[in-house]
Amino acid sequence: MSDHSPCLNCGACCATFRVSFYWGETDSAPGGDVPTQLTEQITPYRACMQGTNQPQPRCVGLMGTVGEGVRCSIYEKRPSPCRDFPFHGENGLDSPDCQRARAAHGLPPLPSNPTRPRLIPIVAA
Ligand code: SF4
Fold it and tell me: How many Å apart are CA 122 and CA 103, to the nearest integer?
């Protein structure tokens, strides 16, 4: 984890998109990790993080203030969309989704062609 990762003072992705995933990722299922009590069932086969299935999403797991300082309270048990989210700078690539989330919160875009060290999303608890 880089202390300079912009993810640590952003968190916009966790407060912009619906975070949905196969229900088998919850700890209600064998081998699942995501705390069920922090999820909402949205179909017989899919769940989402509580707080993200609404017009102004904000994941229940997000702690802190978007654009100032944030962390994920279930970092080690976060669902696959969080692990797979293409954050800005990953593999040296820009992330349109990251920029879109930042814009939705009035945050300025991150510079294009970000440099290494590799950026890591939301710090562990
Ligand atoms: S589980 Fe953690 S990383 Fe995923 S949206 Fe919620 S706060 Fe963000």
Answer: 18
